[in-house]
Amino acid sequence: MSEASNAETAYTGPLVLREFDGGVLRLTLNNAPANALSIALMEELKGHLDAAGQDRDVRVVILAAAGKLFSAGHDLKELTLHRADEDRGRSFFEKTMKLCSELMQTIVHLPQPVIAEIDGLATAAGCQLVASCDLAICTDTSTFCTPGVNIGLFCSTPMVALSRNVHRKQAMEMLLTGETIGASDARDYGLVNRIVPKQYLTQAVNLYAQSILSKSSLTLKIGKEAFYRQSEMSLSDAYDYTVQVMVENMLARDAEEGIAAFIGKRKPEWTGE
User: Fold this and answer.
1) How sure is the predictor about 37, in pLDDT bands with cuts at 50, 70 and 90?
2) What is the C-alpha to C-alpha distance for residues 220 and 80, in angstroms, rounded to an integer?
3) Which CATH architecture fits 217-263?
4) How many helices (H) and strands (E) would you count in the chain?
5) Contact call for residues 68 and 120 (beta carbons, < 8 A)
6) Which CATH number fits domain 16-213: 3.90.226.10, 3.30.980.10, 3.40.50.10420, 3.90.340.10?
7) Of 77, 112, 174, 270, most Cβ neighbours within 10 A?
8) Is residue 9 pLDDT above 80, yes or no?
């Protein structure tokens, strides 16, 4: 949970920095020191992601953060200001949580893979952001928690992403105790893929990005969508669905090219079709 200043004060620059190079879009949370997920930051980040989803030149998205914290979650001071509203903040709370949920679903539904690059603390909705990404690489000093229970606010929306990526018992442990876990536990729980020393973090993330760039963008789009859809189905329904996905994928030009290249022992030339 954030202890950052409310969003109506101080910083007026971009809350999300955008860099694009060779098919890789890097979006950096720029709301130091806590990178709190204020309304303004979430709207800005979602705007970048929505645009990326329509841009065929974007092949991979990296989500990073400036400063010592990845993200301390929602801005509690921003939320608290609205307790003085006539409805005690209900409308603003609904707006905040709905926008956050839409942001997380945007990441999941984005056709491109999204890699979280974490150096520092990711807590509450910040932890939810990590869990929502397709891959997550962190430094060995990074930490994670869902501490809402400590202040009387159960992390119910972070729970959605957490419970879909972390083993059930470990997810409940994080949610019920609010305790912070280190990078090693986060990897064991399934929250992150890999731990690297701080000086190699960006290099490691870029290696993942380059590996993804070498694949067919269409194939990755098909696969990412199918992965999340089938995971919510029964075993039988999942197989029925993925059979059709495989058939349609086989008919794609990139699959025809990839198989021909494999048989011919040459490098495939992808067209994204």
Assistant:
1) very high
2) 42
3) Orthogonal Bundle (1.10)
4) 11, 10
5) yes
6) 3.90.226.10
7) 174
8) no
Calculate mean pLDDT across residues 103-109: 97
SS3 category, 136: strand
Q: How far apart are CA 65 and CA 202, in angstroms?
A: 11
Each residue's pLDDT tens digit, 171-194: 999 999 999 999 999 999 999 999
Sketch the domain layout of the chain as residue ranges.
Answer: 16-213, 217-263
Yes or no: say if 121 and 70 are a contact pair by the CB < 8 Å rule.
yes
Three-class HEC string of 210-245: HHHHCCCHHHHHHHHHHHHHHCCCCHHHHHHHHHHH
DSSP string, 55-115: -TT--EEEEEESSSEEE--SBHHHHHHGGGSTTTTHHHHHHHHHHHHHHHHHHHH-SS-EE
Alpha carbon of 248 to those of 91, 105, 241, 242: distances in Å?
A: 44, 25, 11, 10
SS3 state of residue 264: coil
Report the pLDDT averaged over residues 211-230: 96
Residue 120 near residue 129, CB atoms below 8 Å: no
Tell me what pLDDT residue 13 has.
Answer: 81
